[in-house]
Amino acid sequence: MLKLFEYNWQVRKDWFDWCDQVLEEELLKKRTGGLGSILYTLYHIVYVEYGWISLLQGKEPKTLPSPEDASVQTLRDCSARCHAEIAPFIYAWNSSMEDNRLSDQNEDTGEWESYKYGEIIRHVIAHEIHHIGQLSIWSREIGKPPVTANLIRRGLFD
Amino acid sequence: MLKLFEYNWQVRKDWFDWCDQVLEEELLKKRTGGLGSILYTLYHIVYVEYGWISLLQGKEPKTLPSPEDASVQTLRDCSARCHAEIAPFIYAWNSSMEDNRLSDQNEDTGEWESYKYGEIIRHVIAHEIHHIGQLSIWSREIGKPPVTANLIRRGLFD
């Protein structure tokens, strides 16, 4: 599981670097689908990982800077701070934690739901990869090649 | 690892069902980014999973029907046949297989490269989720809601 998180963190860093080469108006431009803009998608990726893993750590996630005020550098710093908070949990993950349970209130229905830790961990992994796929379409709309999504050849298994 | 494959297979099935509600010309329409069309993306997802896992099984992957001739039903059937071939390997996966090695010729450079099985397994998982994220953008372009990408609340951990 750790390798998939490391993949996501590496890809996310590559996308922040990609953003440095793109005009801010392109990063903030309203687009069709997903979360609606490149920068807001990156904000959402950071927040969702941080939010869920904080809950698994038994902590209430802090409020992050508003995405409206976020520059690439603000978001990169925010991502690094969130990473520092959650990484110890990911590195300590082991299969004995799979069936632990977290109760969480569904934002849409208001109902309390119970999830296995293993379900949430995988949800967080898939969530980031999915949204990065959306960024790859928008990058081509701008006329720039996207960050590679390949997991192989990233040195993660050396 | 298995749960992430089961997630991908369930989401893929949902996308085939989604395709049944969409005009074929929309499925084949050339779009910006990714593999360029909805149907070709689904073909690519099926083929890449089947191709890599066949190699891990020590088998040469068979040629699949050409994507140009593929209808949704052809692809759905093709996906089911590929699934039947590779699923036994996925269900038999265990951590002792992580460091086994596969040599494969890079299509771009022609060079032979060596990968750990664990690297390929995770590459295949991330590959499908990434391309599904692209479909979610195109579905909004068509004006239809995409299949949910949530891994939670799919009954995968009941």
UniProtKB/TrEMBL annotation, chains A, B:
It comes from the Bacteria. Keywords: Metal-binding. Gene3D superfamilies: dinb family like domain. It holds the Pfam family DinB. GO terms for molecular function: metal ion binding. InterPro entries: DinB (IPR007837), DinB/YfiT-like (IPR034660). A divalent metal cation binds at H44, H127, H131. Belongs to the DinB family. This is Putative damage-inducible protein DinB. The lineage of its organism: Bacteria, Bacillati, Bacillota, Bacilli, Bacillales.
